[in-house]
Amino acid sequence: MEKVEIDAKDMQYTPLNETIREAVRNGAKEIILDNVIGQRFIADGLKGDVTIRINGVAGGDLGMFMNGPTCIVNGNCDHAPGNTMDGGTIVIHGSAGDAAAHSMRGGKLFVKNNIGYRGGIHMKQYEEERKPVLVVGGSSHAFLGEYMAGGLILVLGIGQEDPAKDRGIGSGIHGGMIVIRGEVKDELLGVGARKAEFGEKELEMITPYVEEFCKYFDTEPSGLLDMNYTCIVPASARPFAGKYTWE
Amino acid sequence: MSLGSVPLKYKITIDREQCMHCMRCIDNCSYGVYHKEDDRIIIDSRKCTACHHCISMCPRDAISLQERPVDYRSHPLWTAEAREDIINQARTGKIILAGMGNAKPYPVIFDRLVLDACQVTNPSIDPLREPMELRTYLGKKPSKLEIDKKDNGDVELLTKLTPNLKLETPIMIGHMSYGAISLNAQLSLAKAVEKTGTFMGTGEGGLHEAIYPYQKNMIVQVASGRFGVDINYLERGAAIEIKIGQGAKPGIGGHLPGEKVCQDVSCTRMIPLGSDAISPAPHHDIYSIEDLAQLVRSLKEATEWKKPVFVKIAAVHNAAAIAAGIARSSADAVVIDGFRGGSGATPKVFRDNVGIPIEAAVASVDQKLKDQGIRNKISVIASGGIRNSADIAKSIALGADAVYIGTGALIAMGCRVCGQCYRGMCPWGIATQRPDLVERLDPEAESEHVANLIRSWTLELSELMGAAGINSIESLRSNRSRLRGYMLDEGTLDVLQVKPVGA
């Protein structure tokens, strides 16, 4: 059983996920979900090597706690895709809501267009093998990468005058890196965030993710592989170390 | 001009006649109170935290400790503590960090509640010869049971029961994370709950591999930092608890300083070595009770609706309304953590001034759930300042299904409540990650001490129940007619729904 088609019309999320799990258990390598209309928790906690193609709008917490599968959404996505995700890939051919990649601790999330507020909030990483990556084709909103403790956020700003126009970028950031195409005004940086040089090393680091983004969304990477980026990193791995005194 | 030093908090004295110069006091004090000069043991009392480790290890009982040997001019408002806090903050400009629970002398409501006992009109029960039922099931209970009676007389249960947690005693151990406490301390607790048929919380520090053998007795915690949370962690736990708030610090998040994030802690939490582990106040995917419901359901969905999900909140004035919302969120139990709840590290101003007593919070939550006809939809767990079996009996009579103990279990392992957990130098090997201190704690021996505490409180509970003519813990739950308030004001009695003594 390599390929399975599921009609999600009028299906609540629990039976839908049960059907998906059953298909994975039976060895499905590709699952096509048609008529998805906002069902939450698709692929929640799902493990395995399977590609799920979602035709429609995916609801909140797509791929939450997921470890392994690939989810491709042919449409928009509600809030928090990739929430606390462990591994795997989510590709959204549209925009996503707030808290995309919330606490993501591994795997990759690619959004073709824009994301809402609090993108990449609390993303964290453990050594190199668990490094989460969020790539946004369009723009992001306030509190991007807040409390970020690891991983990479890349905002490409394709078709945008201002890819990150809201405040609070990297508030409380103490690990990882935020890379935004173009200039970012100093006043948009949150407490604990600072700009760092974007050099050849950083370009080399983001190149595979730019190329992967372009492969998914059928775009040419050449126009994006230059030095026109702003790099934002933590001012300290211990942002609150000096805030307390002993009793 | 310098503010100068404040008087000593504790003064250590060595009886030189008794002392045999074995130097164990020097070896045992992690705070550096003692050192050797030539052949003499020199004391720096200013470094003492009253942890008592030197006293307990001295083979000659030569060490004595005196609290605050020098004091200020007495004043009812400007206490020594108030003055010293000001001096500390005038010097540093920082937030004062504190450990353990609320240290202010608020009246303890438990101590103004008395339990009832039978005399003549209905008989008391003798637990020596009558079976006492303390088994407790945490989780949703159906409002009614549908059964199918077969022609042959067999009966089939048609109602689908929700997964419950089965406890042999209504006493559990609350969430103290690996990071805040040592692995040996967690192992001791894990062995103790396995021995006594109950459960403990992992805290928000993830689940260390060494604890895997005890996972069937573990409640895994999901806090805003999502430390150590992945699908395997969720699947390992017997239940999952979402931490919204904590009694020692309602409204604020957690913060494990980078000093305590050693290699093993960083691996278990899945965060970089030496970085701060910041758990902010809000979960960033929860901004309403509906969002909380979504997190509850996402955890259930991830674990295929096989595990109970608890939600822990701090006891605050509107806890009852919040609990009613939680009861409708698909959660199976709500944990209410009172303002006496412990903590490894919290701003002192929160520890001592924010939140409400567990007694009032549990009573109002239980009453609200009953008033709304949804008490069966959720279990209530009380925590924060439970000191003995009487507190447990009173908590249950006020409306709790079970209790979490925290500081009590630590005391059973040696903790002397010195309140310095945040410094990571606990000489008892409990609230530390320093290998030389951690190895002082023997998990086998300490697990027996903790298990003994749970066993003895369970025995006492049976006796208290028997005296009240009750043979099942379920009959004590929310049974406020078994309580009377002594020297409690009318307003508090009204919230507790308890009559005064003599009534």
In short:
The complex is a heterodimer of chains A (247) and B (503). By secondary structure, chain A is an alpha/beta fold.
Give your account of this protein's structure.
The complex is a heterodimer of chains A (247) and B (503). Chain A has 247 residues and is of the alpha/beta class. Helices cover 13% and strands 28% of the residues of chain A. Chain A has an eleven-stranded mixed sheet, sandwiched between helices. In chain A, helix 1 (13-25) links the parallel strand 1 (3-7) and strand 2 (30-37). Chain B has 503 residues and is an alpha/beta fold. The termini of chain B are far apart. The model of chain B has no long low-confidence stretch (mean pLDDT 95). Classes of the chains: A alpha/beta (247), B alpha/beta (503). The interface between A and B is large, with 51 and 46 residues.
Number of strands of chain A: 12
Proportion of helical residues of chain B:
25-40%
Average pLDDT number of chain A: 95
Distance between the termini of chain B: 63 Å
Q: Could you give the order of strands across the largest sheet of chain A?
A: 1-2-3-4-5-6-7-8-9-11-10
Unreliable stretches of chain B: none
Q: What is the overall silhouette of chain A?
A: globular
Helix-strand sequence of chain A = EHEEEEEEEEEHEE
Q: How many DSSP helices of chain B?
A: 16
| Overall helicity of chain A | 10-25%
Q: What structural class do helix, strand and pairing data of chain B support?
A: alpha/beta
Tell me the greatest interface.
Answer: A-B, 51 and 46 residues
Strand content of chain A: 25-35%
The oligomerization state is heterodimer
Distance between the termini of chain A: 64 Å
Cα radius of gyration of chain A in angstroms: 18 Å
Radius of gyration of chain B: 24 Å
Instruction: Summarize the main sheet of chain A.
Output: 11 strands, mixed
Main sheet specs of chain B = 8 strands, parallel
- DSSP summary: helix tally of chain A: 2
